[in-house]
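yo, Secreted protein is done. seq:
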Amino acid sequence: MIVRRSAAVLALTAVIGGATAPVALADDASPSASPSRAFPSALYGSTDPTYDGVWRQSLALLAQHTVGVRPAAKAVDWLTGQQCASGAFAPYRADASAKCDAKTMVDTNSTAAAVQALAALGGHDAEVGQAVRWLKDVQNKDGGWGYTAGGASDANSTSVVIGALAAAGDEPKKQVKNGKSPYDALLALSVPCDKTGGGAFAFQPDKKGALAANADATAAGVVGSLGKGFVIEAAGKASKGSGESKASGQSKGSECASGDSFTPADAAHNGASYLAASLAKAPYLKSAMPGAKPQPDYGNTADAVVALAAAGSTSATAGPLAWLEKNSGVWAAKAGPAAYAQLIFAARAAGAQPRDFGGVDLVEKLGATGPAAQAPSRDSAASEPDAKKVDHKSAFNVWWLVGVCLVAGIGIGFLLSRRNKRQQL
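structure:
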C-alpha cells in the first residue's frame, strides 16, 4: 500500500503530460534494466531500482522476517547504507558512499518502509531513531504527510508513516503538529457517508476540495486509521499497533458511521465496509487507467485483504484471497520482490499459508529474487526452511511505477506506491 516516486518521475510526468502517457507501461511491458548496468547483488530484484529500490528491499526484508527467514546480512546492510545523514531515505542511491545533498530526492514512503523493516529485524535502533526524527520533522500542519517533505498530505503516505511510528514504538496519536495528529489528517480524507463513495478514503482532495473514493487509498487508510503497518497477524494473534486498532466493524456491520464523535476506528470501519462491498461484486479490485479498459489490480487487492483483516472483517477476505491464489502468479513474477511481499502480507493477515499459496511457495519465490538468506534461526528452523538462491528473474514492479507517474501527475511529487488518484470499483 504505498508508492515510490522521485524527481526523475516528476520530471518525466511533466514532460509527457501528466498521468496519461505512463499508462503505456502496462502489465506486460515492464521496463528492463540496461544490460550494461549492474545493480548491487545485495538488492532484491534484478531491474532498475531508481524509483523503488529501498521500497522493495524493505518489503522483502520485512516479509522474510515475518515467516521466520533470516535475510542475508548484506541485504540488510545495503538498506541501512541507503540512509542519509538526515535520517531520510531516497528510493535509491547508486553511490551510497557519497553524502546526500539538496539534490538527493528523499521521501517519506521509502523512509517509513525502511523503518518498518529495520525495526522488525532489530539491532538498528540508531538508524530507526534517525529516520523517525526526520519523519516527525517533516510532518504537515494538518497532521499528515505527503510523499515528499512539505508536499500535500495524502492517505497513503500518512498511513505508511503511521505504520513506521508504531513499529518504532511511538504512539501516532501523540505525534501532533499544529494541534493535529496523523489520525486527524486521515479523518479529513474519509468520504462522508452521504457522498458518492461514502465511507471510502480519498487519496487527496481535488482542486475544489472534494473527496473522491479511491480503493487504493482506502486500503491504506483503513490500516493507518487502526495504527498499524504492513504486517497484520491473523485473527487471534497480537499485532503491533498504537492502541487505536479496535475493529469497530465487528459491532456495526456495514452501517456507515458518522456524527460529531467520528473516530479513526469509525473511519477504518467505514473504509473496510466500502472495500468489502466492492469485493462482493467481484473478488478483485480494478485499476481505472485513463483511456483503457479497467484491469484487475493485484496489488490493491492484496492490500485490501490486509486492510479487511486489520479491521476484523475476516469473512470478507475469503473471496479476494482465493482469487489472488488462483490468478496472481504471473503478475508477481513480473512485478518482483515487493509483489511477493504483498502477497505474503495478505496471506498471513487472512490466516493462509505463504508457503502454499495456491500451490506456490511465496517465500521461496521471494527469496529467489535476492541474495541467499542466512541459516534459519533456531525458533523458525522447523517451520520455515531457508530460501534458496537462484538467478534473478523478477521484473520491475510496473504497477507501482505506473502509480508513481499517475500520482506525480497530480502534483504530490508514495506506496506501493502504485498509489494513484484513480477511481476504483
